[in-house]
Amino acid sequence: MRHSSPQLPLTAPWIAHQHAAELAAMGALLDEQPALSARVQQDLEAGCPTNARTGRPGLSGEQTLRLLIVRQLTGWTYEELAFHLADSMTYRAFCRMSALTATPSKSALAATLRRVSPRTLAALNDQLVTSAADSFSIAPSRRGIRAMSPGPCRSCAARSACLGTCRAR
To answer: Most buried of the four, 71, 83, 107, 150, by CB within 10 Å?
Structure first.
């Protein structure tokens, strides 16, 4: 398992575009709440069959959380997410991935994002929507917040708000 490091990877600066500004605002909101990525990291480590400290380094909890948000905002498949992550410096910067390393494949993305439990997804969703609305860094009427609050999932067993990673969708 890869863990957060205090030093950020080499990434390009944000571009002057509205969508990049929205991602930067969401990134700042996530930076204020490190407990969210820690909770995702716990799910990732719980999904390791043996020791989470051995094997190939994977995505960190912070990267996984940001990938979940990008996937929910865009509605992309894992293949489309893998392509745009490899292609876009803006998405790499938001997801805290270095411009000099390879991005995860669609199967690696799917396996990692599916390790996050529905209970964690519901808690993340509630916390992010509440904190974004409270801080007014992103207006609740903007597509980002509306997309992150899909309501109860009719497909997953938890019947909770889900960020679209349950297997039934």
So the answer is: 71
Q: Which of 141, 123, 122, 119 is nearest to 132 (CA)?
A: 141
pLDDT: which is higher, 8 or 87 = 87
Residues in the chain: 169
Q: What is the pLDDT of residues 28-44, one digit of tens each?
A: 889 999 999 999 999 99
The secondary structure of 15-64 as a DSSP string is PSSHHHHHHHHHHHHHHT-HHHHHHHHHHHHHT-SS-TTSSS----HHHH
pTM (predicted TM-score): 0.71
- Rounded to whole angstroms, how far apart are CA atoms 132 and 167? 27
Average pLDDT score over residue span 97-101: 85
11: left (phi over 0), alpha (psi -120 to 50) or beta: beta
